[in-house]
Amino acid sequence: MKELGEDSPHLESKYSRKTWIVIGTVTVVLAILCIAVMIILVETRPAPSPPQILDVYVSPEHPTSSDEIIVTAHVVSESSSYVSVRIRYCSYFDGSGSGGRGMLSVGNDLYAARLTEHGRIFRDGTEVWFVVTASIGYGETVISESFTFQVGDVLRNGSSGLNILQVAHNPEEPTSEDSVFVTASVYSNAEISHVTLGYMQIRSLGGGGGGGSMRYQSGDNYSGDIRGHGPGGLMEVGFVEGTVILYRVAAKDETGNTAVSNVYTFTIS
């Protein structure tokens, strides 16, 4: 029988197969290691610092119903990622409503938005309460302090002594399955024309707002409710866990005197 030499084609074929098997195995192992390293780097990479809202301006400072109202925010971020800046507002007294929209970048870390009431200029006698929010992707949403401006003349601290006290919400720490009720005591030496509840819902890449007349109960007591809106918007009722709620009560009496409560807040757990 003839023995196979070192230069036998059978041996070359055998060695060739072994070589390719080794190369393939090493390639697969290296690929797995690369993927594992990438996953570790992504998971351990620190989240970008949240943006900062430095200043907010309203122009003109004392608008009337004939003015175009522009809100500008100075927002800075250490990240090169896209920063989402939005404005949310509630209006009451001679014009009531709520809304929100994105603010457009106008350069130099400034963002601007035109404010209207359902697409129309705000009426004289309206007060507008608003906040600005800023976020990067699904990261932390930063909320500015509350700002207000009055359109035209709004009477405040009149002789009727209109005042709003004892504002509270129940339950105090609501979950996504709860309904939230707000109560307030409203006092005046004149007949009270209306009491309004306004609120904003703020969450990552979403939110909403609402409000309306509060129901008279007895004595000086009024009540209203805050309705949650799911990711589907108005058609989906219910709170989303982690949503921040801001709300306040506003009132007006027959003398034209007005009053607003402090701004209250809670987070859906």
Please describe what this structure looks like.
- By secondary structure, this protein is mainly beta.
- It folds into three domains: 10-45; 48-154, Immunoglobulin-like; 155-269, Immunoglobulin-like, CATH 2.60.40.
- 13% of the residues lie in helices and 48% in strands.
- It contains one helix and 20 strands.
- It has one helix at 9-44, and strands spanning 52-59, 69-76, 84-93, 97-102, 104-107, 110-115, 126-135, 142-143, 147-151, 163-170, 180-187, 192-203, 206-213, 215-218, 221-226, 229-230, 233-237, 244-253, 258-260, 264-267.
- The protein is elongated, with a radius of gyration of 30 Å.
- The model has no long low-confidence stretch (mean pLDDT 85).
- This entry's quaternary arrangement is single chain
Strand content: over 45%
Low-confidence stretches: none
CATH homologous superfamily designation of the largest domain: Immunoglobulins
Rounded to the nearest angstrom, the radius of gyration is 30 Å
| Tally of distinct domains | 3
Please specify the SSE layout and strand pairing:
Layout: H1 9-44, E1 52-59, E2 69-76, E3 84-93, E4 97-102, E5 104-107, E6 110-115, E7 126-135, E8 142-143, E9 147-151, E10 163-170, E11 180-187, E12 192-203, E13 206-213, E14 215-218, E15 221-226, E16 229-230, E17 233-237, E18 244-253, E19 258-260, E20 264-267
Antiparallel strand pairs: 1-2, 2-6, 3-4, 3-7, 5-6, 7-8, 7-9, 10-11, 11-15, 12-13, 12-18, 14-15, 16-17, 18-19, 18-20
